Amino acid sequence: MNFHDVLPVRHDGVTLRPLADIDAEAYAEGTRDAAVRRYAHLPLPEYTPDTVRELARSDVRRGLDDGTLAVLSIVEDTHDTFLGSLVLFDIAEDQAEVGFWLAPHARGRGVAHRALAASAALARALGLSTLTARTDPTNTSSRRTLTAAGFAPDGPPRHSTTPSGTSMSTQYYRLPLR
After folding, report:
1. Segment Disordered: which positions (predicted)?
2. pLDDT tens sequence across 4-52
3. Phi/psi zone of residue 153: left (φ > 0), alpha (ψ -120 to 50 degrees), beta?
């Protein structure tokens, strides 16, 4: 996987690009939102601008370089305004899992739907055949967004371990790319 050849990806006014130092304040602020804290299941319990900058310079860069992880910022095309985060992880030979969260000011505007469309284009460019996602069955916004973006439920909810290490019931989704 060579993310450097295919990023950034744009779709209908939204751009996916690697998380960068300039996103640190907005990213850290977004992770303090109650909905993000409840549903995003981020790996760290707390994010500060400094931890986000360190993440961008270490894990993000390393994951992009070796093709194992893409921590991306969702930004507006016109002003590069941070809207949220989208991550491709658990990348295998032909599939990856996608996770996303939006800052409160970006919700209700179709941003997540457009970011998921951009992530599907990115996954196709990388040669993947399937994107998967999972969400808390009570997260109606995420379920509705995934369905609108073409993802279909993949069986009944089942227990899984989230990126934060929490074991919980999750609804899996699948999007064929070919």
Report:
1. 133-178
2. 999 999 999 999 999 999 999 999 999 999 999 999 999 999 999 999 9
3. beta
